[in-house]
Amino acid sequence: MKESQDIETATTALSPTNATGPPDNKARRYDRQLRLWAASGQNALESSRVLVINGTATSTSTLKNLVLPGIGHFTILDPSKVTPADAGNNFFLNGPHSIGKSRAEEEVRLLLELNDGVEGMADTRSLEEVLDTDPEWISGFTVVVAHNLDSKLLDRLATFLWSDDSHPCLFVIRSSGFLAEFYIQYHEHAIIESHSETAPSLRIDKAFPGLLEYAKSLDFKTMDPTEHSHIPYVVILVKALEDWKAEASLPHGGLPPQTYPEKQEFKKSIVAMKIKPDEENFDEAEAQAYKCWTSTTVPSEVAELFQDTRLTNITPKTPRFFVLLAALKEFTQQEPYALPLSSTLPDMKSNTENYVHLQKLYKTKAEEEKGVIKKLLAAPVPSDLVDSFVKNAHGLKLLKGKLWDALNGDKEALANSVGTLPKQVSAHLALSALATFHSDNPTATPTVDALTAEAKKILPELLEGWDDAVGEVVRAPFADLPNTAAFLGGLVAQEVIKMITKQYVPINGYCVADLVDSWTGVI
Amino acid sequence: MPATTQDWDERYYHVDQILEKPGPRTDPGFLAGDEVKEFLREKCKILVIGAGGLGCEILANLALTGFKDIHVIDMDTIDISNLNRQFLFRPKDVGNPKAIVAAEFIMNRVPGVTVTPYYGKIQDKDDDYYMQFNLVICGLDSVEARRWINATLVNMVDPENPESLKPLIDGGTEGFKGQARVILPTVSSCYECSLDMLNKPTAFPICTIANTPRLPEHCIEWASVLEWPRVHGDKKMDTDDPEHISWLYNQAAARAKDFKIEGVTWSLTQGVVKNIIPAIASTNAIIAASCCNEAFKIATSSAAYLNNYFMLIGTDGVYSYTFEHEKRDDCPVCGGEALDMSISSETTVEQLIELLIEKQDIQIKKPSLSTPTAQIYFQAPPQLEAATRPNLTKKVSELVPADGEITVTSTSLPFSLSLRISYT
């Protein structure tokens, strides 16, 4: 995944004047994160509203990592008073001074010290009361985070949030000593800016007319030697491929190199074009020669998205992602059967003039193809969104989620995971067993036997790693260790940021962590 | 007032569940109960190097888990761009030393914990200073500083004295990615052993910068590397001074315009000349928690500790990898064996020095070279430098026989590297 952005997009939108001068205080404060998610991500964060249920150490650790980068609003829903144990393990309580006071109020006060651009509220109602009297209140948030909630109450909350796909996504976090897991419940999550590390195709194998003409117009043989050592490799390859295909009398006439000997021969022909041994541009061309026989097509992950039934009937209500996707699909069904060209050209050996000229050819063609996409749109879409969509077309993602806890009822999915991720599934089952046992027997102490019986109801055959997992859970049931809380708070905040900004790719499943052996895994 | 009187009933309710009984994977030597609690809370002394993005998180976690004698070193002062993640600092603290502000904050928030700050460089302290700690945790952004503390702790190990082995826990982050590792000096792979895992810094060839710029970065490098010294002579460039950045930006933008290159902005200029690495609170929280969790496990034996490397990538889902990084027998710090190096018999001393600076697993900035019997080239003191300078243009093969050894030392690092030279 490419993390750093080009800084122009990262800062100009935040404050259009600062591209040429020092940034204002806000841009300076957020500089290190704007280089990851740009002004568009920052604006999304600043418009978000996060609800956190249960003011535990894990909850405030998560919130800290969201208040610092500047979410718009958060509410802590918690009716409880600070206990001596809370005052000992939560950095956002004021030690013994907070004991006996409202946990939500104390935490909100101390969290707000971190960033005066953020709004925070304490709500001392219980979740049960909210679900009984005013569940719609919850749908006013962007994201809901719940840590170590009673499992029956959690089921009610999850079912309510799942009942309408416009409801906020739900983060379920469970932890017990050194073991922990979290899950994101969402129906669907579409990502345009996935920050894919795969570079878009330069279409060397399907050179567009402007590029082809330019390559053909150059006569390598009569060229000045300095000029010769500054031809960009893209141009060398386009020309070499054209020459290769033109040798129609040979068995490969008209086709790019196909077999291993042909590919070797092609590479040799590139090296043979050198007029001096130290021409690095020809070395680059040789190293990139595979681009001549790697056919530019629509990446399979993107092609899969084209199967979505929503693309066939675009209405004014269709989400913009699908309006864009429908146009993209139609675009790829015509010559050259590829995604629209990217206007970003990687650096390569060349002099300034040749590079800038090549860059201009790519930019002009990319603009032209973007124009075609715009004409294919069946409903209006803002221009900057089209730009972003086309620029990131090769990394589009559409994640489809499930109801919280669906895994434990899905014997087939569970059986599949058991084969490849036994330790991870064991930890997940141990945390599930503890939650169910505690909900049914609130005053009883969980034992290995009791939790094993509980887990067997979900998966009759227990597996490798079960003893290790259940033993740790029984050692410290629901213990909210400061280090585990901080670890989870970091992981969950990363994912909340990804969900809110719709940038980078969040998990699709259960993320399990074992801090005895220091590993994480996703089921 | 002794620290323990500050403890209220159930203060450590959560942590004590771990300290009062073993888990299924706990070492049988674990002394559950009062003994381990007493060691952690009254005897254990821990050093935190760095009070920045990782350091703030590390200090808070250590204080909450029950470490009460914490020391922290940092040479930096607080900048406004720290405030998006270094959560012990407020706008009013900008300009003040990180170590001091962080220590005060922790002591105010977590009663009974003593945090002793040192505002200065790790190199100011000697072995006696480092010897007083049970554990060292590093949250640094500098490779140089990590190499120094790593080599210092490895050199301190005295096989006769088990107390001289100080576990070193090191964390680092970049954007959504990070890593945490446990180093047992001389026992497990050390920081120097894994030097080749670092990303090579992007360096642009000088001829590209001078003659054939293509990217906005090339224009910025031209302004800072070539134009600044040409125009300002000996005046040092200060990348924290907005006026200096503005000057560089204007030069770079003018050059970009001449060459029809797009994309030079003020912010990009600052990013390139300061080599800014993206940083967010959440990634620092994960890595700092991982470091502190290992420190807690080592200090208490309540669970096995990391052997020895945890890396995390959070850009595409949550991907992590836990593995044992192997010790290198020819590691210049902890290996003991000479490193084989094959060079041409035509290679000059100067070229060999270039090679030592460039080579990914060595990266010594200012190497001095000698053989067991003679000095080849010394960077300092000036008299010795002048006396050995004529050797720079000589061929190595004239000074060192085949299979002969060269000892490489560096002024910035407390170690010496033995090279066994063969010629092609």
From TrEMBL, chain A:
- Which ranges carry the THIF-type NAD/FAD binding fold domain? 30-145
- Pathway(s) this gene product operates in, as recorded in its UniProt entry: Protein modification; protein neddylation
Q: Which of UniProt's keywords are assigned here?
A: Ubl conjugation pathway
Q: Where are the transmembrane segments?
A: none
The lineage's top-level taxon is Eukaryota
Q: Does the keyword DNA damage apply?
A: no
Keyword Cytoplasm included in the entry's annotation = no
- What's an example GO BP annotation here? protein neddylation
So what family is this one in? Belongs to the ubiquitin-activating E1 family. ULA1 subfamily.
Say what the protein does.
Regulatory subunit of the dimeric UBA3-ULA1 E1 enzyme.
Provide the protein name: NEDD8-activating enzyme E1 regulatory subunit
Report the source organism.
Pleurotus ostreatus (Oyster mushroom)
Automatic annotation (TrEMBL), chain B:
Keywords of this protein's UniProt record, alphabetized? Answer: ATP-binding, Ligase, Nucleotide-binding, Ubl conjugation pathway
Give start and end of each E2 binding domain. Answer: 341-424
Q: Which family does it belong to?
A: Belongs to the ubiquitin-activating E1 family. UBA3 subfamily.
MF annotations from Gene Ontology = ATP binding; NEDD8 activating enzyme activity
UniProt keyword Nucleotide-binding, yes or no: yes
Native source organism of the sequence: Pleurotus ostreatus (Oyster mushroom)
| Main function | Catalytic subunit of the dimeric E1 enzyme, which activates NEDD8.
Enzyme Commission number(s) from the entry? 6.2.1.64
Identify the catalytic residues.
C207 (glycyl thioester intermediate)
The record ties this protein, via SUPFAM superfamilies, to: Activating enzymes of the ubiquitin-like proteins (SSF69572)
Q: In the UniProt record, does the keyword rRNA-binding occur?
A: no
Name the UniProt record assigns to this protein = NEDD8-activating enzyme E1 catalytic subunit
Pfam families attached to this UniProt entry: E2_bind (PF08825), ThiF (PF00899)
Q: Tell me the pathway.
A: Protein modification; protein neddylation
CDD domains registered for this protein in UniProt: Uba3_RUB
- Which is a Gene Ontology cellular component entry for this protein? nucleus
Root EC class? ligase
Catalytic activity from the UniProt record: ATP + [NEDD8 protein] + [E1 NEDD8-activating enzyme]-L-cysteine = AMP + diphosphate + [E1 NEDD8-activating enzyme]-S-[NEDD8 protein]-yl-L-cysteine
Q: Look up the record and give one Gene Ontology term from the biological process aspect.
A: protein neddylation
Cite the InterPro entries for this sequence: E2-binding (IPR014929), ThiF/MoeB/HesA (IPR045886), ThiF_NAD_FAD-bd (IPR000594), Ub_act_enz_dom_a_sf (IPR023318), Uba3_N (IPR030468), Ubiquitin-activating_enz (IPR035985), UBQ-activ_enz_E1_Cys_AS (IPR033127)
